[in-house]
Amino acid sequence: MLTLNSQSDPEFVAAINTRDAKLRFKRVWAVCKKKRRCENEDRQQNKDEEFAPGMKPAPVESHGGCGNVQPQVRQVALQLKAAYEVAQEDGPKRKESVPITPEMAHGILRRISEPDLRNMGLNSDYARPEWMILTVLPVPPPPVRPSISMDGTGTGMRGEDDLTYKLGDIIRANGNVKQAIREGSPQHIARDFEELLQYHVATYMDNDIAGQPRALQKSGRPVKAIRARLKGKEGRLRGNLMGKRVDFSARTVITGDANISLHEVGVPRSIARTLTYPETVTPY
User: Which site among 48, 120, 154, 262 is 20 to 30 Å from 2 CA-CA?
Assistant: First the structure.
């Protein structure tokens, strides 16, 4: 994300003066995504020097940019790739793709200043951009992922929940990353371990990512991730919280009541008025 320290760009000034924070973020993004270089000088000053080469240009505040070319960032599976245009001595420019590691992204986002955050429509108290990259993984307590008895007696072997198995995979993958860093393994080996850790964390959250192989149990059954437990009509929100769903219950409008006899049932007035009933109209 590129922002300007000066107020020389009228399109940028109009974007940051938007009151609604969400709309401000969209407008600032629309301005910044067209920038292909981190600007460090004023464009109007260059134009004045071209038309009046003998005149001494007025001092103009620098943007403070580094002047580097900005890459095009694309998501490939669970990775981010930065595509740069590299100039060649004897031919046209060629594109070179470089992976953006989580450490690189976290470092870039962490260095965004408070004024730039406000200009982008973010609140630093609640929405620091680097918080979108997990550095600590919350672990749900056992009631969220209960173990079940394999023989039904509660005393024999117990089978663990899918989330518990996935957490075990994450712990093992994280241990491999630590060991590779500690032993000074080659960069490509450490990177492979990091990608495996990223895969386990991603499929722990959502096992239906497009273009990504699903995590499977030993039986070949797909792992039921956190997202699958929350979403949809049968999920935790709509199924268990917004509406009560329990076993061994029926649903009816015809019920017994403490105010009527044992051999009678009550029917709501609105239902009773629209019920059809048989009526004999012939003698047979």
Answer: 48
